[in-house]
Write a structure and sequence with these properties.
719 residues; mainly beta; 5% helix; globular
Length: 719
């Protein structure tokens, strides 16, 4: 794998410019209250915190019937995450694991999964179109230099469609300021970790401001042959054309080059966690992701707002799926280019205490998929190289058109009671065409494996499906310090293009329909004392028509079947003990189980109703204790991160016992322009697995070893 050399990284770092100072007018985040030294009476009530994701514009938290966690620019500066997990796992009910590089799976009211049950957004725009979910998709966003990250737990509002079942993660880009701000951050650490973060912003004319951020990262990783590199550029231009008309243009580009890292058996996991069975770029992943958007906002009066957002996505990914090496080795390329439009109108009827939001999202995405069979080279148990066999398994186009109107009403019944109701309609049309000649065999014995391989291909066709998603909510201010909400939300996820058209050994997959979910939630949030804030949520979610594999009449089929139930409680506590001492606690408990679920079990079909869903931890927790010196000259923080036990397969006969980790972070300000910082991850050098699983009928567990004790140091310069 080609890597970015240290000299190149330093050159880019000097040539450009990182983290800009946080404006104190920015709303305090979930972590910021506990991180910022200040007098107790200055701590703003958390109920007044501004949230952007729900309505695509600023709204106070106490107006929203949903559970939202927030990380601000200050939080991200203090954490300096090298992986999305290091930031997001601080939120109650959120767990992101580390699969190497910035690869990950997510668990928010769902098990650790590769399924498309999450919506990843940048400035409220989905980073990928429906049907092209990537469970590693957060590495396409420069999260470290975001202005803030908002995580909605559970389904989103009527403004969002497919995939927002478990939750939504929205990264907000940094707004450029009028004053010139230039910053440079350089850091280095063990395992050849190098990263440069750069930013510059300021006024470009009397009413315009622009900014740019750069992220260049190179890392060998603690696993053998586990190299990872990325380069990202985010540019933003804000312009006030008149007092009523403004625009925001954002350009984001990332390239990721990641080597594959293998799971290990128990002996290697315990004694040789650095071992990697993939050498010679086996299991590689190469991504180029580009996004460009322009939002026009016209507010002719205080009661009316029109927004029109046009966007373009262009994405290419080359991948060798490591999970298929043993039975169907291949490399494939996916490409898509999106032309999209999001139109929204907000109208306030003051005399009726009523607010109406309506809009429509349009997304046209031509896409292609090409897969070639490969021949692997092995030396003992190690995969060392590969070559293309010349056989093309799949080559198809899948052009998707999505039309999604929505409408949402909010009624302020009394000063303390607010009701909301919304509905969204999503209609999808996919034009599929097979580019392979009919003479290309779908079934055959293709070297080097001796058993028949099946690569069934659907006939050219048009696939359509639609979905209604109603949403209801109630928010009640019990007092000035306590706020209650209740919500009912219907959500769904559409089948992916791969599930529909890359059917493998399963014929007739184009009749799949969306997976549906019904979520009910009640929450209580507020301030218990002048120094203690809390956020409590209880939820119950049922998912139906999940996409599973079964055997019917001795034939494997992929179809909509089964039902799962997800229940839990999430608690966040934020304490500012004194001007200098602060702490946070985030804890969640969940029960996730099959109500009705069929699974291939040898030559029969088993039903695991009543069993726990595998890889769904019952308990997750995170806590921090921080001390900040006078005048914020230096700060130190100890973090505890906990993942509870979970079953590793559907039979509930094997499990992973969970783990707990300690991390230490420190910052020291040398001057107003120079700051040193460091972090020590896995302080006790705990042996743990980020993902443990086994196949039904195979008792041996496979482990993904987590990062050992690792030190990183950095310097942040601001001009």
């Amino acid at each position: 794998m080609p890597s970015i050399s240290t000299s190149k990284l330093l050159f880019v770092a000097v040539a450009s410019a990182s983290i800009a100072p946080l404006s104190w007018s920015e709303p305090a985040s979930q972590m910021e209250l506990a991180a910022r030294p200040q007098r107790l009476e200055q701590v703003p009530p958390r109920l007044e915190q501004v949230i952007v994701t729900a309505t695509r514009e600023e709204r106070a938290r106490n107006e929203l019937p949903e559970s939202v966690g927030v990380l601000s620019a200050t939080d991200l500066e203090q954490i300096m995450p090298s992986h999305p997990a290091e930031a997001l796992n601080r939120m109650a009910g959120v767990h992101v694991n580390n699969l190497g590089g910035e690869g990950h799976m997510t668990a928010i009211r769902q098990p650790l999964t590769t399924g498309g049950v999450y919506l990843f957004l940048e400035d409220g725009i989905p980073t990928r179109p429906t049907g092209f979910f990537n469970h590693n998709g957060l590495y396409e966003i420069d999260l470290t230099q975001s202005s803030r990250i908002e995580v909605t737990r559970g389904p989103g509002s009527a403004l969002y469609g497919s995939d927002a079942i478990g939750g939504m993660i929205n990264s907000l880009t940094r707004a450029p300021g009028e004053e010139r701000e230039i910053g440079l951050t350089l850091e280095t650490g063990e395992n050849d970790w190098y990263r440069g973060l750069l930013s510059a912003s300021g006024a470009i004319n009397a009413k315009g401001r622009a900014g740019v951020q750069v992220n260049v990262t190179d890392n060998r990783g603690f696993r053998d042959e586990g190299d990872y590199s990325r380069a990202s550029l985010t540019a933003r231009w804000d312009q006030d054309w008149t007092d009523a008309l403004t625009s925001k243009t954002v350009f984001a580009w990332s390239t990721i080059d990641q080597s594959g890292v293998s799971a290990l058996n128990e002996a290697d996991y315990k004694h040789s966690p650095e071992k990697n069975l993939y050498h010679g770029d086996i299991g590689f992943r190469e991504v180029n992701a580009l996004r460009l958007s322009t939002e026009l906002a016209w507010q002719p009066s205080d009661n009316k707002l029109w927004t029109l957002t046009a966007f373009v996505r262009d994405n290419t990914m080359d991948l060798m799926p490591s999970w298929m090496l043993s039975y169907d080795p291949n490399v494939y390329t996916t490409e898509f280019t999106t032309l999209g439009l999001m139109a929204k109108h907000r109208r306030t009827f003051t005399e009726l205490n009523l607010e109406w939001i309506s809009g429509v999202d349009v997304d046209y995405t031509p896409a292609s998929y090409k897969e070639q069979r490969i021949l692997l080279g092995k030396q003992g148990e190690f995969f060392v190289d590969y070559r293309r066999s010349g056989r093309v398994n799949y080559d198809y186009d899948a052009d998707q058109l999505t039309l999604s109107p929505y409408s949402q009403l909010e009624w302020l019944v009394t000063e303390r009671l607010r009701l909301s109701a919304g509905v969204r309609y999503d209609r999808f049309r996919i034009d599929y065409s097979d580019n392979l000649d009919a003479s290309v065999a779908e079934v055959g014995v293709f070297a080097p494996l001796p058993f028949p391989a099946r690569h069934y291909r659907p006939d050219d066709q048009q696939v359509t499906f639609d979905q209604w998603s109603p949403k209801l909510g109630l928010v009640y201010d019990i007092s000035d310090d306590h706020n209650l909400y209740v919500t009912y939300r219907h959500a769904f996820r559409a089948p992916t293009a791969g599930q529909l058209f890359r059917s493998g050994a399963v014929p007739d997959t184009t009749d799949l329909k969306p997976v549906t979910a019904i979520s009910r939630e009640v929450g209580l949030r507020g301030r218990l004392t002048p120094w203690l804030d809390y956020d409590l949520a209880l939820y119950h979610m049922t998912i139906e028509d999940d996409i599973v594999s079964v055997i019917v009449d001795n034939t494997r089929k992929t179809l909509n079947s089964g039902e799962t139930r997800h229940r839990g409680v999430e608690l966040t506590l934020l304490a500012q003990w004194s001007d200098r001492w602060s702490s946070t606690v985030a804890f969640s408990h969940s029960q996730q189980e099959y109500q009705d679920f069929s699974y291939i079990c040898g030559t029969a079909t088993c039903n695991y109703a009543g069993n726990d869903i595998p890889r769904a931890p019952d308990n997750m927790g995170n806590a921090t204790l921080a001390y900040a010196a006078a005048d914020n000259l230096w700060r130190v923080e100890l973090e505890w991160d906990y993942l509870g036990a979970y079953y590793t397969d559907e039979t509930n006969t094997r499990d992973y016992g969970g783990h707990q980790l300690f991390n230490l972070r420190g910052q020291y300000r040398l001057s107003d322009t120079i700051e040193l910082y460091s972090r020590l991850q896995n302080l006790t050098d705990q042996r743990y697995s980020t993902y443990t699983s086994n196949q039904v009928g195979v008792p041996d567990l496979e482990y993904r070893p987590g990062q050992p004790r690792t030190a990183t140091v950095g310097v942040r310069l601001k001009f």
